[in-house]
Design a protein that fits this description.
Largest sheet: 3 strands, antiparallel
Radius of gyration: 23 Å
Helix content: 55-70%
Oligomer: single chain
Order of helices and strands: EEEHHHHHHHHHH
Strand order of the largest sheet: 1-2-3
């Protein structure tokens, strides 16, 4: 067995032709300094630990987690049981951030979430939390900030995921 430090408390283990990258915590927990075989429990713990580090920086959807851990339902179930992976909470946070921090409108946000494998019911429930007034205010804020001809503004807003009729109605209401 060869053990080599890579970076940031991460090590590379070469054992019986298998190469595994793992964290110092895993090595200490399973006393890998003196082990002669890598068993499945260690590999699963490594996947779990890796996912925990990723979740710590950003919420993740089930689909993202499954890409990382493969089809290991046991780890996914453990993460769900601990409340660390929850598509509803992920969707809620995603919509909140996208709506407040970008130009993205409801249609574009919904499209992106569907591509991420989130169920449409979950998306719709969370999108319904955004009020019509908030959407109209976002449209107005964009129009007032950008001095372009109306047709260009409307096209940009449609491409950003806002409803055509809502854009027109907002413009009429505010006499823009």
């Amino acid at each position: 067995m060869k053990l080599k430090k890579i970076k940031n408390n991460k090590y590379q283990i070469i054992l019986n032709g298998k190469i595994i990258e793992t964290y110092e915590d895993v090595i200490i927990k399973y006393n890998l300094f003196n082990i002669s075989n890598i068993d499945e429990e260690i590999i699963n713990y490594e996947k779990y630990y890796h996912v925990l580090k990723l979740i710590k920086t950003k919420k993740r959807s089930k689909k993202e987690i499954l890409k990382i851990i493969g089809e290991d339902k046991e780890i996914l179930q453990k993460l769900e049981k601990e409340g660390l992976v929850d598509d509803f909470k992920y969707t809620e946070a995603y919509i909140h951030d996208k709506f407040l921090l970008s130009l993205d409108g409801p249609n574009k946000i919904k499209r992106n979430l569907l591509l991420q494998g989130i169920e449409e019911d979950i998306i719709n429930e969370n999108l319904n939390k955004i009020t019509l007034e908030e959407i109209e205010n976002k449209i107005i804020k964009y129009i007032e900030k950008h001095n372009k001809e109306p047709k260009k503004l409307i096209n940009i807003l449609i491409n950003q995921g806002f409803d055509y009729y809502l854009i027109l109605e907002t413009i009429k209401k505010r006499n823009i």
